[in-house]
Structure to design on (151 residues):
């Protein structure tokens, strides 16, 4: 996805594509991982040594507020981020989170029944609360295969 897309998208929302914003978007669109602000900062320093951690936090706060990024809490006492509907990477997905080793598994190979249930749930919630659902997240917590062997 070219910078012009992000520039137009942010402009449409009333914001400019500043250097820190461009750097954060580029870092997030090039990774499959769920990065913390500190992870993004370390990568950003390699691109622009004058960037500050505060700029990264401010950018992530704004991007979360305007639905450019999704903020996750996987139980490790720090937020992790990923682009919402990143067209260069994976499609909509859910998370399996190991409560012991904190491994996060993304999965998008939904069963037909899962899709039907989520669609039905979204439709009923939208109708019941007069609420337009834009996206959703689902996290399942448990033990990964490796940690099950240790239990």
């Amino acid at each position: 996805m070219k910078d012009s897309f992000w520039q137009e998208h942010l402009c449409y929302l009333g914001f400019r594509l500043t250097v820190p914003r461009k750097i954060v978007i580029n870092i997030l669109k090039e990774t499959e991982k769920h990065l913390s602000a500190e992870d993004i900062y370390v990568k950003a320093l390699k691109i622009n040594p004058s960037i500050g951690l505060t700029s990264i936090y401010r950018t992530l706060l704004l991007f979360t507020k305007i639905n450019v990024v999704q903020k996750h809490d996987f139980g490790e006492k720090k937020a992790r981020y990923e682009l919402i509907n990143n067209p260069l990477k994976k499609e909509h997905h859910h998370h399996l989170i190991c409560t012991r080793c904190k491994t996060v598994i993304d999965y998008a190979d939904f069963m037909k029944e899962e899709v039907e249930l989520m669609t039905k749930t979204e439709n009923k919630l939208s109708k019941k609360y007069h609420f337009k659902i834009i996206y959703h997240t689902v996290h399942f917590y448990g033990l990964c295969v490796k940690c099950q062997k240790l239990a």
